[in-house]
Amino acid sequence: MVQRVASAVWENILWVLLGAWVLFYFVQHPTATLGDIKTGISNGTIWALIALGYTLVYGIIELINFAHGEVFMIGSFVAVSIWTWLGISANSSVPVIILGIAGDLVVSMLASGSLNVMIERVAYLPLRNAPKLAPLITAIGMSFILQNVGSLWYGLPTSSPDLIGSQKTLFTIFDVNVVRSDVFAIAVTLPILIALTYFIGTTRYGKAMRATAQDPDAARLMGINVDRTIALTFLIGGLLAGAAGLIYALYNGTIRFNQGFTAGLIAFTAAVMGRIGNLKGAVVGGLIIGVIQSISDDQYGQQWTEAVVFAMLILIMVFRPDGLFGEEVRPG
Q: Does the structure show a pLDDT above 70 at 31?
């Protein structure tokens, strides 16, 4: 019995250590820690949306799309540019703001989705049968190209109009103020995640994606258009990145051309934590990183946050190489 309990604890040692780490600060500063968890969850929804793009593409063609962070950045730029062009600001009427956010969400998602499909058609499709290093280098190249496009678009950090009154308190629970940006991030992300789960789990195209991820050759023999399915996967990943870009612009209030590099690394780490290729793992990994970042910012200072996040990643790779939600994928 003791051995069984010890074995179970060891298999879940990372969950135990993470829980103990959070509990340690909760006992010392309960209100501050609850506030950090709240902020981490709302911020983590952004990382989860970006991480899903990484994990969808990897699950289909086993490629790390390092340009994905820049696709997210373009989504932010499109959103802010449209609001600026239309003259929508915090002083606009409520119906105009609601329509501006809803319409811009659709446009940003479509812009990022179309860009992601174009990247796949131009940069990855011709290298489908090439050694895996070739598309990987191409992905890095596309990342730098898009980053330079962003620097020409908005060369300096640019403020996003505060259309939602992001820091206004909606309600207080356990002495923790829940502000509008927290609710907005979750309210936009949750329906998208539900729709994605439904699409992949029940629709014909979702089943085609799962079949292609499991065995593309067998899927092709069964009449599935694998190239079209891969393009659809890139489209969905881009749509998610575009949504994350708009949420990020309103949540943080500032956009910059290199935001995709940092966000891409964090989201990629989230995908790896949860086992890249696993959708549930990508979401949970994003939320975990959001909480780790928030607590680290509060307890150690922002200059140590990246070190703490990647130290956690190293621990996961050492103790659980398959990630927190490890499962078998097709052989590479």
A: yes
